[in-house]
Amino acid sequence: MFSVVVGGVLLALLSRAALSSASPTARCCQVLAAAVAAWLRDPTLQPGSAGGLMLLWALVGITVLAAGAMQTLMGLLGVGSLVRYVP
């Protein structure tokens, strides 16, 4: 919840678009949930232990940061302009 509020405030302050929107989408949540489910099935992770739980949180954090970095990079490179070629 905190990240949605902070992200919305930053978007409002930094965005140049008249109507901009920023929130976690269902697809991103589903991809992250699938990744967590796969990690929980991994016997080497041992999520029942304190170390395993911390590793799970670290993996989730790294995944979210990597997704944000990829979206930022695609935005800076103007990849969104390719949408006009999608039928």
**SSE run:** HHH
Mean pLDDT: 82
The tally of beta strands, per DSSP, is 0
* Rounded Rg: 17 Å
User: Main sheet, how many strands, which sense, barrel?
Assistant: none
Low-pLDDT parts are none
> What percent of residues are in strands?
under 5%
- Separation of termini? 35 Å
The secondary-structure class comes to mainly alpha
Instruction: Name the shape in a single word.
Output: elongated
Fraction of residues in H or I helices: 55-70%
What is the chains' assembly state? single chain
Task: Tally the helices.
Answer: 3
Structure overview:
The chain is mainly α and about 90 residues long. The chain has three helices and no strands. The N and C termini lie far apart (about 35 Å). The mean pLDDT is about 80.
Strand-helix topology:
Elements: H1 2-14, H2 26-41, H3 50-77
Helix pairs in contact: 2-3
Short description:
It is built from 3 helices and no strands. It has 87 residues and is mostly helical.
Keywords:
87 residues; mainly alpha; 3 helices; elongated
